[in-house]
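note to self — DONT lose this again. spent like an hour looking for the file last time. sequence + predicted structure for the chain T wanted, 319 res
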Amino acid sequence: MDRRQGIVVRFHSNIVTVEDTLTQKRFLCALRGRFKAQNIRPIIGDIVEYTGFDDADFERTDDRNARLKGRIENIFPRRNVLDRPNIANIDQVLLVTTLKCPEVSSFIVDRFLVLAERNGLEVCLLINKIDLLDDESRELLHSMVDYYSKDYTVVLVSAKTGEGIREVASVLSGKISTLAGMSGVGKSTVLNQIDPSLGLKEGEISKQLEVGRHTTSYSELLPVANKGLVADTPGFSNLSLTHIPSDELRFCFPEFVRAGCHCYYEDCLHIEEPDCRVHEQVAEGEILPSRYENYLQMYREQADYERARPNLKYQKEKR
C-alpha cells in the first residue's frame, strides 16, 4: 500500500486530519496502535506518512463525522515545537499591531518579539490600520519601520482599504504561520481580505481553533494564500516570559547581540556594566531608547520573579 506524506492540520479525540503535501486534500486518519502504546501523540504541524485503507479512500472529506480514510504510519522529527500552544514545524510568526484603535504599546510589541526570538521563529511585523494615522502618528510609523526592518520583515497594512494585503498574502504563501497580536488589531479582518471565503468575524479565529476557551490546543490550521497554513496563537496572549532566565533575555534582542560582541565584559547584561556598547549605541541613537527601556523592564520583572523563587531551575538553551 502506497505511503503518502502530509501535515497534521487537526487533531481531536484521537482522530487526525491530514492535508496531503502534493494535493492539499484532507483525510481523516487513525493512529497506529504502536503510537498509542508508546503514548506518542501527533500535534498540529507534524509532518507524517500515512496510508489509505484502499485507493478509493484517497478522496477528500471535510465531514468530521465521515468514516476514517487512512492511518498514520510515521511521524517525522520536528524542526521546532511551540509549547502553549502545541504546534510543530512553524516557519514564521505574523505579529499584527496597530498605532491607533487600539494603540498598542512598544512594550507589548517587544514582548511578542522576545517570545518569537526565544522560540527561534522568523517574524513578520504587520502594522495594520494605517489609514487611521494622522501626521504625527505617521512620523512614529516611519521611525518604527526604519528600526524594526533591520531585523524583521515589516508590512504596512490597511485591512479596510486593502493596502498591503497582497504583500501579506505573499508572506503567507507556502508557509506554516502563526498569527499573534492583541485583541482588536484586526487579525481576522486581514485574513478575510486575503481569503474572503473564510468569513471570519473579529475574535472568531480563536473560537474556531481552540477546543475550549481556556485551552491551548488547536482544532485546525486554516488554509490561506497559495498553499499557506495559518494558526492563531492563543498561547502568546498572556505574554509570559517566566520561562526565560533573566540573564538570557539579552539574546532575544538581535541588536543587543550584535552590539554585545564589542562590550568589555563577555557576559555583559547591558544593565550597569562599564564599557557597554549597548549603552553607547542607545546614547548615539543606534538603539531605540524605548526598546532599551523595554528590555530593562522585562529584565527587572524576571529578576524579581527569580529572587522570589530561590529554588527555580531553568533548562538552559545552548548557544
